[in-house]
Amino acid sequence: MIPPSWGLTPAPADAKLPATCGWDLQNDAPDVYVFLPGGDYRRLRKDFLKLTGPTEMPPLFLFGAFDSRWFDYSEATALKQIDDYRARKIPLDVLVVDTGWRAGASTGYLPNTNLFPDMARFIREAHEKNVRVLFNDHPQPTGVNGLDPAEMKFRYDGLSGLLNDGLDIWWYDRNWMVHLVPPMPNLNKEVWGIRHHCCRGVNVLATPPRGAFRQAIISCLTAGPGRAKTSLSMKLKNWVLWLCVAGLLVTEVFLFLANRQKDAALVQLRESQQRVEQLQSDLDQLKNSSVATLSTENARLRAENQGLTQKFPRLQAENNRLREQNQKLTQQLETAHSAVQQQQEQLQQMQADNQQANTAPEPSAEQPLSAVAQFNACINNLRQIDAAKQQWALENDKPANAIPPAQDLLPYFRGGIFPVCPSGGGYTINAVGVPPTCSIPGHVLPQ
Question: Do residues 253 and 327 share a domain?
Fold first, then answer.
């Protein structure tokens, strides 16, 4: 497979092999690159970057807070979601609109104008609130394969059109129903799909000045071993929680049935007591009747009263047994409640630990950084300075003992601004082979 110079974009009108948009599928690619660095890793990396180009540094908002859920936002509800985060002073860097923005609900690239009358306006207002926007793409194929001219034009116009409206991130979601069709056997559909989306990000938007970031970002969700393990872990956690909930429900049912049985036994006991009282009253009346009739009736009543008296202890024993069972079920219910509460506290702690480990929200102007946060911010600044020195040395072919001027490193920092220690310390750049340092004791870059 030999790609043309225009890559995965619609071919020019005079292109050869128009059926495959200029891609030659009949010959193996003839280019072979051999690197002979002579054991010099820095030279190997420099030569490799000359061939492929440097890797862009991800913007800081990619390491911030994402709000993502499967929900059909409108322009008003999406902007309100951003305002709610700001009102509660909760950080938000990226809002995921998922799939509901489409006129086709799940596929296609035409916006649902009932929900988003002016897509460019919505994205612009989100940017004014300092929030980036991510759209989900279910790439439904329209041609025989990914190099079909109709497929190429449809994909290019759809993806680039929304990028031109200001969209920040495309989420390439190769889901369970649709995916792009590779043009050749043994070519992974996920790799082919990612290549399609990356070409849109690179070719549609112009390369920004150094220090700025405006190229589109491609996010890919595909199944793999690591994802499967994570998914299994999350499923197990969910199963444990649902089993606890099911156990709680079963306990509630048993408790309800036991209470019903207890109530029925109490009703039966009260009825028996009423019958005993009624029989005792009848007995008193019979005492005033004739002696002969009283003797016969008294014998019958004694026998019936004896039977009821024998039944009464059994009812009391049954009542006691039901009370004991009720107490046991109550203890089981309390144990189940405790287990569910502990599980929820553990899950909340895990989520809090995960959020603390993976997110570093920027403090507001009203709340100064803590000592630990200042230390972490300073260490991050030292890493940026060291990375900028290494990139400067590679691009300018400088040795390890060369000391770069601070002015030469500004293009490698975001916004062209040299980092400042939040604790008030001063930074020493040092030579390329020596890590930068801070004047605050303890603010040392780990080796």
Answer: yes
